[in-house]
Amino acid sequence: MTSPQTRVLVIGAGRRVKEGILPALICLQDRFSIEGIVSRTPHKVSLFHDQFNMETITELNTINFSTLEMITLSASLTEVPKILKQLSTHDTRHITLFIDTPVFHHTHLGNTKWLKGFKRILVPEDGIALPSFLLAKKLIHEGKIGRLKHVYFFHSGYRYHALASLKMLSDCKYISAIRSDRFHPELFQTHLRFPNGVTATIVDPRDYSVGRFMIIGTKGCIVDYELNGDFVQRIGYRMEGDNYRGLMLNGEPVAPDELDTLYQKHISDDLFKKSPMNSLKIRGLMSLFSNFEDPHSPYAYTPDEGLYDLLSIMVSEKFGRFKDVGLSPEKKSFFYKIIHLASKLMPSV
To answer: Which of 105, 177, 287, 294 could make an SS bond with 129 (beta carbons 3.0 to 4.6 A apart)?
Structure first.
């Protein structure tokens, strides 16, 4: 359990921060205190009908790092190494760093050297904590659809974020194979196979306004759209305008947990980005942040995992295929080992 007021520094003030990071932390205001927002130019950040107002700062040297417990870093890939270098001049050994996807540019893996000075480094990959996916995984573990066989993302998965979600749903650390079938620059399918035999298909283009998923097992399926049958577990969304307000399962409301209650208490209709998916992501980020101190957190997603998902999907997009094989549990897979070696050999920038 985190302290009532975990002190957080937010680095970056772009779309990602205003759309997701800050709203999630504001909804967690009973547990987290935003000590400052760092941006390249000073300006005022206002959210939730001005219930949250803060002037940004531009100099890290004005921060008392000894009082912080958590830092979120969401900046452009060109800025991230520069910011990490600045952070390395401060004592951050007691601080957990959340560094946003895709972590580093694929040609700058040597920048992982700048991640060594923190207590823990995590990636705020909301794709592994979306409420609908967490409920689906619970249903899978309860045996509601038998043994998991295949997952479809119909216009509802984006590149490395989709891979993170699929690894979570399939309980796999790596991907055995990826194949891309491109019919048109915007129309293509990505087929995946996981080491436990589970397969998946991502249908593009991505369009969250119509995107849906289907999860198939040996005894039934889970969907988030209308489908009849006694073999169907149907997840629905309770909405208030564009704001997510809770889940339904087979037509019945799903009981809220503690974080759902905090979300309902604090969420506002005044969001920087108003869409059902964005509000689901906010709720997902709340789970990631709330469990940052738990060494066994199911939401612990590391920079290695973020880089793996980015680079594996890039390989499949460039060559049409990607393959990987497992090694020992600690090394995860051959491709993980390649990434690790590349990060050691490539220079930092």
So the answer is: 287
Contact criterion met (CB below 8 Å) for 192 and 166: yes
pLDDT band, residue 331 (cuts 50/70/90): low
Residue 248: count of CB within 10 angstroms of its CB: 15
Strand extents, DSSP E, the chain: 6-11, 32-38, 44-47, 52-55, 70-73, 96-99, 120-122, 148-154, 177-184, 187-193, 199-204, 212-217, 221-223, 232-240, 243-249, 252-253, 321-323
Domain 127-290 has CATH 3.30.70: no
Give the pair of three-digit tokens for residue 196: 């436990």
Evaluate whether 97 touches 115 at the Cβ level (below 8 Å).
yes
* b/e burial code for range 215-236 (CB count within 10 A of at least 16 → b): bbbeebbbbbeeeeeeeebbbb
Ordered by start, the domain boundaries in the chain are: 6-122, 127-290
For residue range 254-308, what is the model confidence (pLDDT) as tens digits?
999 999 999 999 999 999 999 999 999 999 999 999 999 999 999 999 999 999 9
The topology under which CATH files domain 6-122 is: Rossmann fold (3.40.50)
